[in-house]
Amino acid sequence: MTIKEALNTKVAPLSISDTALDLALLEAGLDGSSDYSPSTDGKAVDMVWAGLLLTTIQVVEVREDDVSIKYSSDLRGMYSAIMRKWFLFDCFAPLKPTVRQVQPW
Prior knowledge:
It contains 4 helices and 2 strands; from the N terminus they run αααββα. By secondary structure, the chain is α+β, with helices and mostly antiparallel strands.
């Protein structure tokens, strides 16, 4: 399996074109025709996948009079899962304040 085939498998539900996939691989510095190895290429492929997820995350709200319909998908949850997998910063995670207690004595 090549790197492009592995990435194409991950992004299949997103309906992303082959040219966009090639561009994302090129920008990440990956050769799509080389063999995919999860131990060496796994993080890079996941980062490309996360980048493609960010381009497709949408929240559409339709309002008419007093009726509101929201269309959303859980792509943010998928993005957060990828970031947690590699112990990276998740921009969608709620921020937790850091409390430091200073004792004057």
